Amino acid sequence: MRNKTWWIVGLGIALAVTLVAPLASAWPDGLERVAEDQGFIDLEEAPSYEVIPDYVLPGFQNESLATILAGMIGVLIVFGVALTAGYALRGSQSRGDAR
Q1: Per DSSP, which regions of 1-99 are E strands?
Q2: CA distance 62 to 22
Q3: Residue 62: left if φ>0, alpha if ψ -120 to 50, beta else—which one?
Q4: Calpha distance 95→22 (Å, rounded)
Q5: In 10 A of CB 70, how many CB atoms?
Q6: Alpha carbon of 49 to those of 22, 26, 78: distances in Å?
Q7: pLDDT along the chain (99 residues), means of 10
Q8: Nearest Cα to Cα of residue 68 among 50, 49, 47, 52
């Protein structure tokens, strides 16, 4: 398979996984569970900003749909950053090889 095809397949899989995001466990993750068990959960500080608070896109009545859309937006942002970084690094390496 060509390199570009792998990128497209990977993006498709990541977007498909967001469809099951509403089925994720409501239980706390490992770090949050330890913080609760050890009694320092109240020491957490709020983030200085939130792009998509609590992984739910505001303005949608259906919370499951809002979660799926938030996940898709996140996947596309990460994909865009990774693609841009990949092309930038590839360009700088090819210029470095020409010397």
Answers
A1: none
A2: 11
A3: beta
A4: 45
A5: 21
A6: 23, 23, 18
A7: 82 93 80 89 84 81 89 93 89 61
A8: 52
